[in-house]
Specification:
The complex is a heterodimer of chains A (267) and B (139).
Chain A lengths: L2 H21 L16 E4 L2 E9 L2 E7 L4 H5 L6 E5 L2 E2 L6 H11 L3 E8 L2 E8 L1 E4 L11 E5 L6 H4 L1 E2 L1 E6 L2 E2 L8 E4 L1 E9 L8 H14 L5 E7 L3 E9 L6 H5 L4 E10 L4
Parallel strand pairs in A: 9-16
Antiparallel strand pairs in A: 1-8, 2-3, 3-4, 4-5, 4-6, 6-7, 9-13, 10-16, 11-12, 11-14, 14-15, 16-17
Helix pairs in contact in A: 1-5
Chain B lengths: L1 H17 L7 H42 L2 H12 L2 H22 L4 H29 L1
Helix pairs in contact in B: 4-5
Classes of the chains: A alpha+beta (267), B mainly alpha (139).
Chain lengths: 267, 139
């Protein structure tokens, strides 16, 4: 039996599963979190698993180095019980409660946490993000990312890719020609869509196995800097020196890259 | 046969018990005692020197920041703040953490966020390995 139809089906299923998972809660406009002119937003500077809350609060998964949580002494594994007086241990919507609590503090930050059974109260200042002050009616500077267009397969081993999510938000199932983003750093999760013809029969089999085993975990994240009025072209680079069985098993045979940056006026 | 052997053994024991006890020379006990005292003194000296050295090292470590002048310490802080590569990586980690939080806010699965965590781990490893190198450059 030829592996090619099976691999194609698997790649299609993986991309469909990617799209369904990501689009389940996709907001209508990407980068909706962009701040209005002069608007301030307060952040904890940490990653909190707000998907599940219980009587022990929500779990702090990571602390951003130098961020507010790091400065006040929170550690990964701490259970957050309350932030600025808003309880996180008896709510069904910890995500919105946390966001509201941070904004209501107006920059002040007081956290009640549980660490190894001990109750702690830590306080300090929240991280602040402020939107650039712009003349009335003027939108923040923006740029684009895209995977569309002809990729330099032969000269640079760049192949097609699909952007699955941007800044943690899923992209639409029908990808647009380009994604408009505010200028600055963004995190893309990319899935490779390299044509089967690039692989030998053995390599196709190895790739099929890794895609089947990892599914959406086979995607890779890429941090990009979007400059105002520029378009970044993203692709999947096939790493010719990492096409042995071991590299396929470890999903090392490709990496997402920005392979071109071109001017593209952004309103 | 066995009783003969027992009798012989008993006779030997009696003869040995009857032998006169030879007095030990007086100087022997003095030599043994002096040697014991010397060993004890050497052991105490060794322990004392060890404790003294340990206390010295601890005191040096504790007092070093206070003994250093501000002029000596200032350039280290300035150099730490001006590490462009490090701050770039930290900005990337910050962007990644915000993306992770957005994903958790919308209820993303563990599999969906796994690639972002992998990128974070790689960046963090880079920052941590860059730190000692940066210190070495400054030192």
């Amino acid at each position: 039996m030829s592996l090619r139809p099976l691999a194609a089906c698997l790649a299609f299923c993986a991309s469909l599963s990617n799209a369904v998972m990501a689009s389940a809660a996709t907001p209508p406009v990407l980068a909706a979190a962009a701040l209005q002119s002069g608007q301030a937003r307060y952040l904890l500077g940490a990653v909190v698993d707000v998907r599940r809350a219980n009587v022990s609060g929500v779990t702090l998964l990571a602390v951003t180095p130098g961020g507010a949580a790091d400065r006040i002494g929170l550690l990964p594994g701490d259970q957050l019980l309350a932030v600025n007086g808003q309880r996180l241990d008896n709510t069904l919507t910890p995500s919105s409660v946390l966001a509201r609590a941070l904004q209501q503090g107006n920059g002040a930050l007081q956290v009640e946490a549980l660490r190894e059974g001990k109750r702690l109260v830590l306080s300090g200042r929240a991280d602040q993000e402020t939107g650039a002050v712009l003349p009335k009616g003027q939108a923040p500077a923006c740029g684009y990312v895209t995977t569309q267009g002809v990729v330099p397969k032969v000269s640079r081993a760049i192949h097609e890719a699909v952007i699955i999510s941007i800044d943690g938000q899923g992209t639409p199932m029908q990808p647009p020609n380009r994604h408009r983003l505010t200028a600055g750093r963004h995190v893309l999760v990319v899935s490779e869509s390299i044509d089967d013809s690039q692989f030998s029969s053995k390599q196709r089999q190895d790739r099929l196995l890794v895609l089947r085993r990892l599914n959406v975990r086979a995607n890779k994240a890429l941090v990009v800097e979007v400059k105002p009025g520029m378009r970044l072209r993203v692709g999947a680079q096939l790493l010719r020196d990492k096409m042995d069985s071991k590299s396929f098993r470890e999903n090392l045979y490709w990496e997402p890259v920005v392979w071109e940056e071109v001017a593209d006026r952004c309103p | 046969m066995e009783s003969d052997m027992n009798q012989t053994e008993q006779r030997i024991r009696d003869r040995l018990a009857a032998l006169p006890e030879v007095p030990l020379p007086e100087a022997l006990w003095q030599r043994v005692d002096a040697r014991r005292r010397r060993k004890l003194f050497q052991r105490k000296l060794g322990v004392g020197a060890g404790v003294f050295a340990l206390a010295g090292v601890l005191a040096f470590k504790l007092l070093l920041p206070a003994l250093q002048s501000d002029e000596v310490r200032a350039p280290r802080i300035v150099a730490a703040a001006a590490l462009p590569a490090l701050s770039d990586a930290q900005a990337d980690i910050r962007a990644i953490d915000q993306a992770l939080q957005a994903a958790y806010d919308r209820g993303a699965s563990d599999a969906e966020v796994a690639p972002i965590w992998a990128a974070r781990a790689a960046l963090l490893a880079g920052v941590q390995s860059a730190r000692p190198a940066a210190r070495q450059d400054r030192g």
